[in-house]
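Recap from last week: sequence in, structure out.
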Amino acid sequence: MIWDLSQPHQNVSNRSFCTKVIPSQPVAPLSIQVTHLVPGKVYRVKVFRTGFHANDAYSAYLEMGSPTILNAAAIRHLNAITRDLPETNKTVRASTEGLVNLKLLIRSNDIVLVPLSARSRSLKHY
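Predicted structure tokens:
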């Protein structure tokens, strides 16, 4: 899991900061190297992101005007944008040294989960 915590410079309490929509900004891409893998083995990589307009019910709620009561349509909208589906779902092969190198784009205040799992063989049906 990776988190880019970018606190704003402010001379007041966090209350005003946390009650308005704050767009994220790109930060330097990350290079991730996973080691000690089985050489040549295929792995599944997924990338899950929570941040500005990515699984972000709070910004959407603020953009609705922070209603005190949510109607059914608003609840459906918030549920639809926070399904936490992977933005990346691919396979990679470990090098002969047992390495996988990944590049990851990240934005300020994003939280990114990058699980890497051994790809299971499909079952043969007889």
